Amino acid sequence: MAKELKKTDVVLVGMGWTGGILAAELSKKGYKVVGLERGKNQTLADFQMMHDELRFAHRFEMMQDLSTETVTFRNNLKMRALPMRQYGSFLLGNNVGGAGTHWNGQTFRFLPYDFEIYTKTVERYGKFKIPEEMTLQDWGITYDEFEKYYDQFEKAIGVSGDEAPLGAPRSNPFPTPPMKKTPALELFFEAAKKLNLHPYMMPSANLSENYTNPDNISRPACQYCGFCERFGCEYAAKADPLNTVIPVALNTGNFELRTHANVVEILHQDGKAVGVKYIDTITREEYIQPAEVVGITSYALNNVRLLLISKMGKPYDPNTGTGVVGKNYCYQTFGASAQGFFENKQFNLYAGAGALGACLDDFNGDNFDHSDLNFLHGANISITQTGRRPIANNATPPGTPSWGAEFKKQSIKYANSVLSVGAQGASLPYRHHYLDLDPTYKDAFGLPLLRITFDFEEQDRQLVAYLGEQTEKIMKEMGADIIQAGKTLGPYNIVPYQSTHNTGGAIMGSSPETSVLNNYLQMWDFENVFIPGASAFPHNSGYNPTDTVGALAYRAAEGIDLYLQKGGLLV
Amino acid sequence: MVSRREFLKGAGLAIGGMALGGGIVGTIAANMSSSKETPKGDHHVETTEYNKALMFFTPTEHAVIDAAAERIFPKDENGPGAKELLVSYFIDHQLAGAWGTGSKEYRQGPFYPGEPTQGYQGHLNKQQIFRLGIEALQNEAKKRFNQSFTSLEGSQQDEILQAFEKGEVEIKGVSSSYFFSLLRSATLEGVYADPLYGGNRNMEGWRMKKFPGHQMSFADIIDKDEFVVIEPQSLHSQHHS
Has UniProt tagged this entry with the keyword Ligase (chain B) (predicted)? Predict the structure, then answer.
């Protein structure tokens, strides 16, 4: 039998960015908060052997152990979903800090267009512009209403950047100036300007200079060591929950962090959650943690899985388009890119930082006219210098064999002479892209795995073809001697790594008929359950999601505080 | 260059609630000089390479992988190939551990072949796949040239490896192209992983690519126009026990 523990004000399921932010904000206000994390604790002191490409980038040391839990995947309803047995397309986080420890730090705001995408698209192009199967909808909040939460998150982590000419407007300047502009980025700037585009430095959570945040936490400037993605930052220069929000929560004395605590069910009665059930993964003992409010703050995919397992909210049915839990699963559309090989230039490409880059928004959102185009939205186009680690990076000019003498010669010749301009395409929702529970495969505790049904559509192929043209033009202007452009897109394939930007499934909106959450990230059907995170995105923009995830958590913190004071649905 | 400790001191680091200084033991200067780690000259002592022994392969299996890896990453005017970089020992050691047994992979059934978009769906682990793959390389050498794989000319070995790459060789339980892709990626890992894993001997893989390995900071050179060659360091330089 599960052991029932003392009731707390707030229990949080998962201690990554959203759990960390809720823990900090609510414990500062005096609420008692318990944070449950299924992985282990970790601190900066554990990040001393990080510059190990094999262990962290190719053996996935920081990622969730797939032998205990994974997802299943199929491209469409007719296929049999099969488990993701090895890592590929995306990487699931683990341990305190979650996926927030192994990210690149690219910290973009979504566009005002994103928050009202349905309304604004219909206004400009008429409703027949939206394909019949595309379940596009507004977020239930406008950018102007949401801006202050971006500001809060960006100040907490000290984002470095400069004004985005065509990006979202800001009420305050960036907390710190942009990172250093390298010769490779300079080439991109010059080329983009010649093409009358609007380049700017990528907003970065890798600090450009020492910074003290409003909670009085100081962190040092980035050293450009070239180990961000898939690695923890041993300097704390890259913001993560361990070096920003979690210590704030711990310092209040109101926050208890419990590790090796795997939540298996949200318990509820008469339309309200009463607490959560978890298993201590070391002893296998079961516990019940009662709480006034439950924050579901794990990774987007697991948030949805917990709702389905706990039978909360109406599961989405792709055949009728009714129900909400699992709806509007989106991803990110990569594929548009131009790789340029330079004969007589070498760049210091071993050096870099995850968010050291230059980018532009001329072809993002609705910043360009889509009247004659067969797709909506677009992509942020960028060049990044993240550190070209040698196992992963063996680019060779087109036509080179993939092994043997010629491969060795060319991959070494161009090791520091290859640059890439890429486009991070928006991913828009379709009626038949969704999440539900797999009927066959189980995790180590006997619970069903989450099943992903997803593919790329004509929308994505058109986007990649158009954006691929733009990246190629920029690379030509940059003066590369050989260019390999990506302008085509096959079916979605779970094997090659693309991005850990899985979104949707427990989306926010303005009506319980079409969304799981209101704009406080509060469940319509369970007023004391809040679910900030990328699972709340009704679609995914042409940017990295973390800034928006962080901002949603600050919005939810405000909502939970309001709820604990007066109760009821906040919207 | 500043040491890591000086750097952190200089940055005036304070993180609320975290014992930041506690775990940082390094006083590693970001090595921007060109001095090599291995001493040369009169006082140079030859050390035994204890790493050159087998944890998983039989000696015959090892010889086949040693030869095949060399064809994938051969010695040339740039520098050593897989053989001299001890890549076959790297692969052997990797197979003996968690990677070889797939202990962090989802290994529950039922098993179905699946579509290419669904990834590897077999029940065999990498230890088993390498054993089957090596056996198939030997069989193919016998069939085509009536010799063992290791006795063949380089061009004959290439011909067989190409057939594997294209998936033209039948192996029970796994496709030859999948085995080949594992062999290729493991070879590149052995060339370029930190030498602590037993390959990339004396960091020669890194030197060929002018990759400096583990360094504390590139803040001084990140925005420089000229290309800076930095003598590599392994994680060994970070570890003090």
Answer: no
Q: Do A218 and B15 touch (CB under 8 A)?
A: yes
Contacts of A404 in chain B (CB under 8 A): 71-72, 74, 158
Token code pair at residue A44: 């900066």
- Write the DSSP string, A44-79: GGGGTT---IIIIIIS-TTB--TTT--EEEESSTTS
Predicted confidence (pLDDT) per residue in B86-124, tens digit = 999 999 999 999 999 999 999 999 999 999 999 999 999
Of A102, A377, A433, A501, catalytic: A501
Contact list, A189 vs chain B (CB under 8 Å): none
Distance from the B202 Cα atom to the nearest Cα atom in chain A, whole angstroms? 16
Domain assignment present for B229: yes
Residues 6+ apart with CB under 8 A from A341: A395, A397, A414, A417, A418, A480, A481, A482, A483, A484
Is the same domain home to B122 and B172? yes
Of A60, A348, A408, Cβ closest to residue B222: A348
For residue range B153-166, what is the model confidence (pLDDT) as tens digits? Answer: 999 999 999 999 99
Q: Report residue B34's pLDDT band, with 50, 70 and 90 as the boundaries.
A: very low
For residues B144 and B236, state if they share a domain: no
| Complex-level ipTM beyond the 0.90 threshold | yes
Domain limits at B180? Answer: 59-105+117-205
Is there a single domain that holds both residue B144 and residue B239?
no
DSSP bridge pairs for A435: A452
In single-letter form, the type of residue at position A289 comes to Q
Q: Are residues B79 and B186 in the same domain?
A: yes
> Chain A residue closest to B71 (CA)?
A404
- What angle, 0 to 180 degrees and rounded to 10, lies between the N-to-C axes of helices B126-145 and B154-165? 130
- Tell me how many domains chain B contains: 2
Does residue B41 lie in a domain region? no
Domains of chain A: 3-566 (3.50.50.60)
Residue type, B26: G
- Phi, psi at B13, each rounded to 5°: -70, 130
- What torsion do the CA atoms of A389, A331, A420, A466 make, to the nearest 10 degrees? 170
Confidence of residue B23 (pLDDT cuts 50, 70, 90): very low
Same domain for B16 and B91? no
- Spell out the alpha helix ranges (H) of A457-514: 458-478
Contact in structure between A95 and A226 (CB atoms under 8 Å) = no
Concerning whether A501 is annotated as a catalytic residue, the answer is: yes
Of all residues in chain B, what percent are helix, strand and coil, respectively (each to 5)? 45, 0, 55
User: Counting Cβ atoms within 10 Å, is residue A7 exposed (0-12), middle (13-18) or buried (19+)?
Assistant: middle
Examine the domain organization and report whether B195 and B239 are in the same domain: no
CA angle, residues A225, A227, A229, in degrees to nearest 5: 145
Measured between CB atoms, which of A54, A218, A416 is closest to B193? A54
Q: What is the pLDDT of residue B55?
A: 98
Tell me if B152 is assigned to some domain: yes
What lies within 8 Å, CB to CB, of B27 at 6+ separation is B3, B4, B5
Of B102, B184, B194, the CB nearest to A403: B184
Both B178 and B69 in a single domain? yes
pLDDT digits (tens, 9 = 90+) for A152-182: 999 999 999 999 999 999 999 999 999 999 9
Residues B83 and B148 in one domain: yes
Residues of A in contact with B119 (CB under 8 A): 82, 84-86, 88, 494-495
C-beta of residue A93 within 8 angstroms of C-beta of residue A62: yes
Q: Give CA A370 to chain center in angstroms.
A: 26
Nearest to B112 among A53, A82, A388 (CB): A82
The residue among A246, A219, A202 whose CA lies nearest residue A100 is A246
Residues within 8 A of B (CB atoms), A 134-193 only: 180-183
User: Does some domain include residue B36?
Assistant: no
Q: Are the Cβ atoms of A495 and B158 closer than 8 angstroms? A: no
